[in-house]
Every structure is written in C-alpha cells, then in structure tokens.
Design goal:
With 179 residues, the chain is α+β, with helices and mostly antiparallel strands. It has helices at 24-27, 52-60, 77-80, 160-178, and strands at residues 91-96, 100-105, 108-111, 141-144.
C-alpha cells in the first residue's frame, strides 16, 4: 500500500509505504551527484546510504575520519568518480519508526517480526489512527525487489533459505555493533 493525500498525490509512486517506514516508499531515494569532469554521467546500482557521506566526503577532502566515528560509513568516492563498478556496500540496515529494523541485501529486503512498535512514534495516539499500522510486522517479511519492488508478495515461507540467510546476517550486524 502506498500513501495518497486528499488530492490523490502519491509521493511514493507505486512503492509501498512512506517516510518513517522501512518499506521502499520510505527509503528508496536516488542519489544525484554532479561534478563536471569528475563524476561521469550515468546510473549505478551501488547502494549508497546517508551514513556513507561522511567517509566519502572525508576521502574527497583528504581528511581522516576520527577513530570510532561513523563505523558504518563506507567511502564510495571511487564509485562516484567512475573508478569502480564493484558493489562496495552490499547491504543497508534500515531503521524505521518504533525502533524497528529492516535489512536490504542485494535485491532482497528482510523485515524481522516485531510485536509492536510502541516506542517512538510507532503508534498513533488514537487507536483508530492507522497511519503507522505498517510499523508493526507480525511475521517475518521477505521480498525480492527485482520482481516485486512494491513489496506485495511475502516470500518468507517460499524461500526459507533466503529468510534464514538474511536473519543471520542482520543478527551478525547487530552483534558486531554491540561490541
């Protein structure tokens, strides 16, 4: 489901969700970079997270990133300058309202189940307020974003091996952060 305002405007297009949610309608945003003579024209499938701006800008200005700062930041300057087509960032952990996570890894998106999203603004003050209902995920969700960019077909049951792989990857990422 995508959000639509009273005038029929759909800011997320056909994508599910909206700002604050972990669905593609709230997280898929293109990065547009222009630097004549430096950044070549074109499109790259490279993941780029907002946190990568720190390491990328530090590399661009030849400044060190302080020890312990921005541990999730990856220098993607070689991608921007067209020096590599390699996927330097292979996954992105997305943090949504209600302090809940999703994991985008390659063409796959995984949402662990969460019983409620009572922290943050995960729930409307009025129980009839359903604006944030998609913050609650009662069962794991798994989507192939190549065939289903609107996240309408949950493949968690059909692809248990992929579900197990991404469940473990997210657990490993979280464990690494806890150290």
């Amino acid at each position: 489901r995508s959000v639509e305002d009273a005038a029929g405007h759909r800011p997320s297009g056909a994508l599910r969700g909206w700002k604050y949610l972990r669905f593609e309608g709230g997280t898929r945003v293109p990065l547009i970079a222009a630097w004549p003579g430096k950044v070549p024209r074109g499109v790259t499938p490279q993941f780029f997270s907002l946190v990568d701006l720190l390491a990328t800008c530090a590399a661009l200005t030849k400044q060190p990133v302080p020890a312990g700062a921005a541990p999730d930041s990856i220098n993607l300057l070689p991608v921007l300058l067209g020096e590599t087509k390699a996927q330097l960032r292979t996954n992105i952990v997305q943090h949504g309202i209600g302090n809940v996570l999703a994991l985008r890894a390659g063409d796959w998106k995984y949402f662990p189940a969460n019983a409620d999203a009572s922290t943050g603004i995960g729930r409307g003050a009025d129980p009839r307020d359903t604006r944030f209902s998609e913050a609650v995920v009662p069962e794991p969700l798994l989507f192939d974003l190549v065939t289903d960019p609107s996240e309408t077909r949950n493949l968690a049951t059909a692809r248990p091996e992929k579900l197990a792989e991404l469940t473990q990857l997210l657990a490993d990422i979280r464990a690494k952060k806890a150290r």
